[in-house]
Amino acid sequence: MPEISALCLRAARGAGLSWGMAEECAHAATWLAARDFDWADAVLYQLEASGGRQVTPRVARWEADAPVCALHVGVALSDFATLPEGPQLDGVWLGMVTGPLIMVPFAARASALLGTALEITLDGSPWLRVSGDNTRILGTKLMRTKMAEVSVSPTRLDATRPLQATAQSAVILREQLLRLDGLALKMTVPSSAQSAKGAGAQGLGED
After folding, report:
1. Each residue of 89-110: b (16+ CB within 10 Å) or e?
2. Is 139 left (phi over 0), alpha (psi -120 to 50) or beta?
3. pLDDT computed for residue 176 by the predictor
4. d(Cα 108, Cα 28) in Å, to the nearest integer?
């Protein structure tokens, strides 16, 4: 988990996210990985896709000029969980969201803050129910959805044991690792004679 966190933090920074959002991305990745979801695909979709990053929380219905990435929606959801703009009695419509899987850790955080379970729907179809850190999949066929209208509503706490994330895997593929490493490298600078000298090396060819 520390390796996943560090890798995603660097990749998020390389993709241009602020330190705070990069840390939230790393948190989401480790939360998903610990529950056997396809965390690498979820993170890469957020960092490589063109979803917007601006959403305005409103009571009952959030506003955005374009589809918004689920990472930013998720962070806002947890920040506004206990406020009128959060998922109150009648729920809240979050708008069109890209890559909704990565918002689930933040829905879990909101659930814990509110002390109630939350049900997430995609395009009106039940998708997931979160009760704190427990997640129950309601719509397995929706797990690969990349864009949908998302709504979050309070629901009763589910005392039964949550189902496992069927057909999901925390294992990272080599191709996914290379893509994340490629993003992470964007936050570095090329070696120079000055940096080599400062590191105690005699030339650029020495470590």
Report:
1. eebbbbbbbbbbbbbbbbbbbb
2. beta
3. 85
4. 10
pLDDT digits (tens, 9 = 90+) for 143-164: 989 999 999 999 987 665 555 5
In whole angstroms, give the CA distance from residue 207 to residue 205.
Answer: 7
Cα gap 207→201, rounded to integer Å = 6
pLDDT of 167 higher than 50: no
Q: What is the mean pLDDT of residues 159-176?
A: 63
Determine how β-strand 134-137 pairs with β-strand 92-98: unpaired
pTM exceeds 0.90, yes or no: no
Nearest one of 87, 1, 104, 102 to 48, comparing CA atoms: 102
Residue 86: pLDDT band (50, 70, 90) is: very high
Longest pairwise C-alpha distance within the chain: 67
**Tokens matching residue 104:** 């689930």
- What the block records as the tokens of 75 is 């962070």
